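Minutes, project check-in
Item: structure for the 114-residue chain
Input as provided by the requester:
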Amino acid sequence: MKNIVDVYKKTFTVVHGGRAAGLTLDWASGFSLSEGTPGAPPVWSYRFSQLRGSSDDGKSKLKLHFQDTETKVIETKELECQILQSLLFCMHAFLTAKVASVDPAFLASIHQSN
């Protein structure tokens, strides 16, 4: 049986800077990238609200564009993932759920458009 916390956290195996890594999507903390052993401290992390855009090649390459909260500079993180479509689906599900959680009118507007 899955722990309830696991439902709100998903880690994908990715390649970052030529090295194997884990990209974690976490409901509470957002995006984080760890290299090495499981549980290693993150190389970088961003809240969902810091994501300013993303792009992919439809195969395995993904670029995530985050805005630094202090400097306001956009930082691009390039990743490769063999199951890119699964990663994108999960990422969009987390982002949609986050929007819905802070804006109850969001769900009402979806139902009205159908």
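Outcome recorded: The chain has one domain: 4-112.
No further action items on this chain.
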